[in-house]
Design brief:
- This protein has about 475 residues and is α+β, with helices and mostly antiparallel strands.
- It folds into two domains: about 300 residues, 3-Layer(aba) Sandwich (Aminopeptidase), CATH 3.40.630; about 120 residues, Alpha-Beta Plaits.
- Helix content is about 35%, strand content about 20%.
- It has 14 helices and 18 strands.
- The strands form four sheets. Strands 1, 2, 3, 6, 7, 8, 15, 16 and 17 form a nine-stranded mixed β-sheet that branches. Strands 11-13-9-14 form a four-stranded antiparallel β-sheet. The protein has a three-stranded antiparallel β-sheet with strand order 4-5-18.
- Strand 4 and strand 5 form a beta hairpin.
- It starts with a helix and ends with a helix.
- The model has no long low-confidence stretch (mean pLDDT about 95).
- The structure holds ligand BES and manganese (II) ion (MN) (2 copies).
């Protein structure tokens, strides 16, 4: 009864598991920040050392290179491929466990109740940047493997490969290239991804679709150099005003994107999906009040919030660097300004075509006296995964044991670029079994992971891996 033994091991060691996670959370592995390359590598080494310690084999860092930032951050690889054949004599299955050890920047720092890289327990939660996205969830995989090894004298119930990336939050270029060029190294029957959310507390959830994205910058240049706004205001073009005019034409007031052709490839979810979404326990007013906290929700007329965030594309502006942002006032017309603009894509849109449509449209809007440059920073495909396979059944069975409830199937509005490559390049089904909560503050101040979900996640993964092996 090694499942019981593994679950008992996890239960007895859970305090230690949390302490180890805290050590990992103390490493500020912010992948987008060039000054953090050393910390990002330290996080990779931390994960690799633990994979070695628990009994994984062939543990190594795989170097990557990247065009969009100075250095590629390393992948962490490990495997253990000695599982006994199944009862019917068939070869043991191989599960590819995926996670990411990089995190988003922690700003604005003054909004954190405890510092982002000093993990702190409060009210049954662990607060830190990366707590749930994705260090805590990746650590559930490692701890489930440790528990299974401990329960069965250093053996696992199934073959396992582990791949953990350090560039998910910056587009995942390195892992995508690796999967394209060395897919055979990751040969598996199914991928397990724990980097998504539960639909509600206590509700076991499988995520079966993700939006894709294109992340861009629009640079606007006006004058040769910064100018006195009194001497030149009225005659010199202002790049911020120009960007505001462009951005204002990306969406109309009803939330409809105005880029010509942008919706052409948008696929409507199936009737069965739409019906299932209507049955989910979702209270729009509660969502507005507790999760969003704005006076009203916005978005495309005629679609529910779940449709708008899961199955419709959107455009957002993240920041407009440039000009004067110090305290007080400075009367200047900046020579240049930038807008960081991203679009979320849904099946069957493609990043290349959507970017081309967007770029052509933005360029056609170029205000007088301004030179615009539209560049792509990174992109990822939208994806819907199949639910018609034995691995989804193993996942729902595992979570039923742990939560005593039926699993709900949802999509996620976020993006995990590599999932598309698992499906397309490796041609394997992907099970997205995540344990975050809607109020875990991903990418925001006071990110947290509910510790009960960390433990339930470990147990669910123990049972899932055992189930796939049986
Ligand atoms: N874990 C998230 C994605 C996610 C969150 C999926 C919640 C479903 C529900 C991931 O780490 C993430 O934030 N991805 C980025 C990807 C981008 C930078 C390419 C995102 O979605 O912004
Ligand atoms: Mn993530
Ligand atoms: Mn993220």
């Amino acid at each position: 009864m090694s499942i019981v033994a593994a679950v008992e091991f996890a239960e007895k060691n859970k305090a230690r598991f949390v302490e180890e996670l805290k050590a990992l959370l103390r490493i500020p592995s912010i992948s987008t920040d060039p000054e953090r390359v050393g910390d990002v590598r330290r996080a990779a080494e931390f994960v690799a050392a633990e994979l070695t310690r628990i009994g994984m084999e062939n543990v190594r860092l795989i170097e990557t290179t990247s065009a969009s930032h100075a250095n590629g951050h390393p992948l962490v690889y490990a495997d253990w491929l000695h599982a006994a054949p199944k009862a019917d004599g068939a070869a043991a299955a191989t599960v590819l466990c995926y996670g990411h050890y990089d995190v988003q920047p922690a700003e604005p720092l003054d909004e954190w109740k405890s510092p982002p890289f000093e993990p702190t327990e409060r009210d049954g939660n662990i607060y830190a940047r990366g707590a749930v996205d994705d260090k805590g969830q990746m650590w559930m995989h490692v701890k489930a493997l440790e528990s299974l090894f401990a329960a069965d004298g250093g053996r696992l119930p199934v073959n396992v490969r582990v791949i953990v990336e350090g560039e998910e939050e910056v587009g995942g270029e390195g892992i995508a290239a690796f999967v394209r060029e060395h897919g055979d190294v990751l040969k598996a029957d199914v991928a397990l991804v724990s980097d998504t959310e539960m639909f509600a507390a206590d509700l076991p959830t499988l995520c079966v679709g993700l939006r894709g994205m294109i992340y861009t910058e629009i640079e606007a240049r006006g004058a040769r150099t910064d100018l006195h706004s009194g001497m030149y205001g009225g005659a010199a073009p202002n790049p911020f005003v120009a960007l505001a005019q462009v951005i204002a034409k990306l969406k109309d007031v009803d939330g409809k994107i105005l880029i010509p052709g942008f919706y052409d490839k948008v696929a409507t979810p199936t009737d069965a999906e739409l019906k299932a979404w209507k049955a989910l326990p979702f209270d729009e007013e509660h969502y507005r009040e507790t999760e969003v906290g704005s006076v009203a929700l916005t978005g495309e007329a005629g679609y529910s919030v779940l449709e708008r965030t899961w199955a419709r594309p959107t455009v957002d502006v993240h920041g407009m660097p440039g000009g004067f942002i110090g305290a007080g006032a400075k009367t200047v017309i900046p020579a240049k300004a930038v807008a960081k603009v991203s679009m979320r894509l849904v099946p069957d849109m493609t990043p290349a075509e959507s970017f081309a449509q967007y770029k052509a449209y933005v360029e056609s809007l170029t205000p007088k006296g301004i030179v615009l440059e539209v560049r792509m920073i990174h992109s990822g495909d939208p994806i819907v995964v199949s639910t018609d396979n034995p691995y989804v059944k193993a996942a729902t069975d595992a979570m039923h044991e742990v939560f005593g409830k039926e699993t709900v199937f949802v999509r996620g509005g976020g993006s995990i670029p590599i999932v598309g490559d698992f499906v397309r390049e490796l041609k394997i089904p992907t099970v997205m079994m995540g344990f975050g909560l809607p109020d875990d503050n991903l990418h925001a101040p006071n990110e947290k992971f509910h510790l009960a979900n960390f433990y339930r996640g470990i147990e669910s993964i123990v049972r899932f891996l055992s189930g796939v092996g049986a």
